[in-house]
Amino acid sequence: MDTPTAKPFPTEIPFLHELGVEFLGMADGRAQVALTLEPRHMNSWHVAHGGVVMTLLDVVMSMAGRSLDAEARGGVTIEMKTSFMEPGGRVGSRIVAKGHAFHRSTSMCFCEGELWNDDRMVAKSMGTFKFMKRAAPRA
Q: Domains of the chain (ranges plus CATH)?
């Protein structure tokens, strides 16, 4: 999947909107999101905060799994492991997360994700997600 241009998220997720995450697409067990790093995304070392990196990987893996579900149920994270190989990037960098669902059952999906800064993979993640129908909002 090439890096396409941003489009509206299929589901409104206020936290991602607040971060400035761009939805690039999802289909056939694959998904991509991107983020242009700003000062608010940095840690004390002036590189992308690990929480930002893990958020992108979590979201992109869940979306990859959701793209395989005929009912388009949401995917909630059951387990996630991330390896950080180098800093995610500095202010102005555009990082791209790529997700792939490699196995699914009726209610679970197993995914992997990679975070790229230009041509360098900076983090790799594995995750297990459970498909769930949305509950009605509480009053």
A: 14-132 (3.10.129.10)
